């Protein structure tokens, strides 16, 4: 507590505005628990940038934490590019204070003699990634907290390739941020260096999405689509993108089309949650839709529901959606002729089915840490040597080509709808395409458990869980022996049968992955942006015939439930 009080007392200084000083003093006087949570640490860059609850304090999103981050970024850009005119693109989502924060960040950059291209209103995060490269910027910033609850906001930084920052940029920027004093933050902007952008970038972005995600027009007019933006940013571009791609039978969930930081019609604006797509599914039954698409507030992730063999709408998980999208891309690239330099991208907690797909088409599957910044890093390192086809991760994100260097629900939606349209025109379906793939690889099923632990105590409990797993790792899961343990913190993959150890050649991360004799994969990973620890389960079995799918699926899902119960 003393450390928190000492941090808080700094915020009573004259360099902080009067309202901030009053709120800090009130916390000190009346709310020791709130004071502790607001000041016990500094917000840090995680897999998705800096994200937290809005309010005063070092552990909150506010003008001073954002100010220090932006001043640190400005200092880093000055050091990296000392002899050129520097520029940064800025976008923001529909959340409370996002526009205000974007203006504050913009002023700080222009106050540091850095040109800013600021979107006129809310825009999808992938459009920010696109704009960075399209405008030749040195960096980009988006103010968003993705699918977090309304009280959250966040700040993601992109480098000049359009991908989120990775080493050495991230550590370099953080070092600068740590050295920023409040008095050094240039809050007074220079409007002469501010350029407001909008429709002209929208048009270029949408055209690029259509170009990269379109291979055929077959069946598009016959496909019935239900789309919901869940009160988020995709409403700014998705309807027009679908129209330009040739989809004319589109039904928008109007109750959720109004942008709102309160997300009033859902408990959580997260397309991973079935409840978030409830209204879309109800509309789908009314209009007899073939596919339902829902995007999260900053429009980088998408949830999909399609009709199964009985005509019932079923929600697909991120691995399943990405399996169909990846296979379709691989097939189309294969039709044009693969050169042998192509690759797809995945992450360590994503299903291993992507290795199977890569093997089927004789391409490489590169794997990185969780977060699309690592897939963008793969692309950057491979430029001029290899060609990126597409890639994704289990958390409902996918990237079509490399024109956007982050997960992108806009182009992914266009691709998913094309697949559904093409399949329907050929007496198949999106769902049947997935099961067909399982007959060529193995049949995979996945599960996820998220354990939320808030505040300082929660963070300590999560840290202790990982310590316990390392000190006393499980010997079996569901009566199947653990044969391999990958520890991404020590960068060692250990064969538990032979005892041999192999170095892991990707950056360190606090992740443990267990592999069992029967092919199961269990991962434990504390979130980099939320107060939770996630456990990922992936199991598989052989599938000879499509008609056997339901039985095999149910057996695998029962196995996942047994694995969950062990935790």
TrEMBL record:
InterPro entries: A-D-PHexomutase_a/b/a-I (IPR005844), A-D-PHexomutase_a/b/a-I/II/III (IPR016055), A-D-PHexomutase_a/b/a-II (IPR005845), A-D-PHexomutase_a/b/a-III (IPR005846), A-D-PHexomutase_C_sf (IPR036900), A-D-PHexomutase_CS (IPR016066), Alpha-D-phosphohexomutase_SF (IPR005841). Residues 539-566 form a coiled coil. It holds the Pfam family PGM_PMM_I. Gene3D superfamilies: Alpha-D-Glucose-1,6-Bisphosphate, subunit A, domain 3, Alpha-D-phosphohexomutase, C-terminal domain. Keywords: Coiled coil, Isomerase, Magnesium, Metal-binding, Phosphoprotein. The keyword Isomerase applies. Its cofactor is Mg(2+). GO terms for molecular function: magnesium ion binding; phosphopentomutase activity. The keyword Ribonucleoprotein does not apply. It comes from the Bacteria. One of its GO terms (biological process) is carbohydrate metabolic process. Signal peptide: none annotated. Residues 44-179, 203-305, 317-435 form the Alpha-D-phosphohexomutase alpha/beta/alpha domain. Belongs to the phosphohexose mutase family. PANTHER family: PHOSPHOGLUCOMUTASE 2B-RELATED, PHOSPHOMANNOMUTASE 45A. This is Phosphoglucomutase. The lineage of its organism: Bacteria, Pseudomonadati, Bacteroidota, Flavobacteriia, Flavobacteriales.
């Amino acid at each position: 507590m003393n450390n928190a009080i000492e941090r808080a007392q700094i915020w009573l200084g004259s360099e902080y505005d009067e309202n901030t000083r009053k709120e800090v003093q009130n916390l000190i006087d009346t709310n020791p628990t709130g004071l502790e949570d607001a000041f016990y640490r500094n917000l840090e860059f995680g897999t998705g940038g800096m994200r937290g609850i809005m309010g005063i304090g070092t552990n909150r999103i506010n003008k001073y934490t954002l100010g220090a981050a932006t001043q640190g970024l400005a200092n880093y850009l000055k050091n990296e590019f000392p002899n050129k005119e520097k520029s940064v693109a800025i976008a923001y989502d529909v959340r409370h204070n996002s526009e205000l924060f974007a203006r504050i960040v913009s002023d700080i950059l222009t106050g540091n003699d850095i040109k800013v291209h600021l979107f006129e209103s809310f825009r999808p995060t992938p459009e920010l990634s696109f704009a960075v490269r399209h405008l030749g910027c040195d960096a980009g910033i988006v103010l968003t907290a993705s699918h977090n609850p309304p009280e959250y906001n966040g700040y993601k930084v992109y480098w000049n390739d359009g991908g989120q920052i990775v080493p050495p940029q991230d550590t370099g920027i953080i070092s600068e941020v740590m050295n920023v004093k409040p008095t050094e933050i240039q809050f007074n902007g220079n409007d002469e260096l501010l350029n407001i952008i909008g429709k002209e970038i929208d048009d270029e972005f949408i055209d690029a999405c259509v170009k990269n995600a379109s291979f055929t027009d077959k069946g598009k007019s016959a496909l019935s689509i239900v789309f919901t933006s869940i009160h988020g940013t995709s409403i700014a571009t998705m309807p027009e993108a679908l129209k330009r791609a040739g989809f004319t039978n589109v039904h928008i969930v109007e109750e959720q089309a109004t942008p709102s930081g309160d997300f009033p019609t859902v408990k959580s604006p997260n397309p991973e949650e079935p409840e978030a797509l409830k209204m879309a599914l109800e509309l789908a039954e009314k209009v007899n839709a073939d596919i339902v698409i829902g995007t999260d507030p900053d429009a980088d992730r998408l949830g999909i529901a399609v009709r199964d063999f009985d005509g019932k709408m079923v929600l697909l998980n991120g691995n399943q959606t990405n399996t169909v999208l990846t296979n379709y891309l691989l097939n189309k690239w294969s039709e044009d002729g693969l050169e042998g330099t192509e690759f797809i991208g995945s992450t360590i907690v994503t299903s291993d089915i992507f290795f199977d797909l890569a093997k089927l088409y004789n391409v490489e599957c590169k794997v990185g840490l969780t977060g699309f910044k690592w897939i963008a890093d793969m692309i950057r390192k491979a430029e001029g040597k290899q060609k990126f086809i597409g890639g994704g991760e289990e958390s409902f994100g996918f990237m079509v080509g490399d024109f956007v260097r982050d997960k992108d629900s806009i182009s992914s939606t266009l691709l998913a709808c094309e697949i559904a349209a093409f399949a329907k025109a050929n007496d198949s379906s999106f769902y049947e395409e997935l099961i067909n793939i399982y007959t060529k690889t193995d049949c995979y099923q996945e599960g996820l458990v998220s354990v939320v632990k808030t505040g300082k105590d929660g963070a300590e409990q999560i840290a202790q869980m990982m310590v316990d797993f390392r000190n006393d790792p499980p010997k079996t899961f569901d009566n199947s022996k653990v044969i391999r343990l990958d520890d991404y913190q020590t960068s060692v993959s250990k064969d538990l049968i032979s005892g041999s150890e192999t170095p892991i050649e990707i950056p360190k991360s606090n992740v443990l992955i267990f592999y069992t004799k029967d092919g199961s994969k269990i991962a434990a990973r504390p979130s980099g942006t939320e107060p939770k620890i996630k456990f990922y389960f992936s199991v598989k079995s052989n599938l000879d015939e499509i008609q056997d799918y339901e039985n095999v699926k149910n057996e695998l899902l029962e196995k996942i439930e047994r694995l969950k119960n062990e935790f």
